[in-house]
Amino acid sequence: MASLSVSLVSAEQEVWSGEASLVVARTVIGEIGFMAGHEPVLAILAEGEVRITREDGTKVIANAQDGFLSMADNEVTIVAGSAALIA
């Protein structure tokens, strides 16, 4: 099964990066989820949780706000003004 290459960064640092099977984030028009093969997307990030499901099923959860996210070629990049892991 194909996976996603995920990078979550804030203005200060890289918060998390790795391989995942699912990424869910809040945008200004609502939540969006990404799996491998998703169409390209560029969206404005809203304040809220970013939920990342690793390939082994474990979850990474971060609070993020003020930025954007992009999805293309099985790569998800989330650039936030501020972001921090909570789980």
Automatic annotation (TrEMBL):
It is a peripheral membrane protein. Its main location: membrane. Belongs to the ATPase epsilon chain family. This is ATP synthase F0F1 subunit epsilon. The keyword ATP-binding does not apply. Residues 4-83 form the ATP synthase F1 complex delta/epsilon subunit N-terminal domain. It comes from Microbacterium mangrovi. It is found in: Cell membrane. The keyword Chaperone does not apply. Keywords: ATP synthesis, CF(1), Ion transport, Membrane, Transport. It comes from the Bacteria. GO terms for molecular function: proton-transporting ATP synthase activity, rotational mechanism. InterPro entries: ATP_synth_F1_dsu/esu, ATP_synth_F1_dsu/esu_N, ATPsynth_dsu/esu_N. SUPFAM superfamilies: Epsilon subunit of F1F0-ATP synthase N-terminal domain. GO terms for cellular component: plasma membrane; proton-transporting ATP synthase complex. Pfam families: ATP-synt_DE_N (PF02823).
